[in-house]
Amino acid sequence: MSTVNTIIVGGGIAGLYCAWRLRQLNIAFILLEAKPTLGGRIQSKVVANNATLSVDLGPTWFWPHQKKMQKLLKELDVDWFEQYTRGDVLYQLRENQAVTRTSGSDVMLSYRITGGTQKLITALSKKAGSENIKTTHPVTDIEHDQGQWTLSIDSSGSSPVFKSQRLIMAVPPRIASHLLTSKNIVCTQLTTLLDKQQTWMSGQAKFVAVYEQPFWRQQGLAGQAFSQIGPMVEIHDASATRDQGFALFGFIGLPYSVRLQLTKQQLELACVEQLAALFGEQAAKPTRVYLTDWAKDKWVATAQDIAEPPKHAELNLSRYQQQLKQLKLYFVASEYAQVEAGYLEGALTAVEAALNDISRDTMP
Ligand SMILES: Cc1cc2nc3c(=O)[nH]c(=O)nc-3n(C[C@H](O)[C@H](O)[C@H](O)COP(=O)(O)OP(=O)(O)OC[C@H]3O[C@@H](n4cnc5c(N)ncnc54)[C@H](O)[C@@H]3O)c2cc1C
Question: How many domains, in total, are found in the chain?
Answer without folding.
Answer: 2
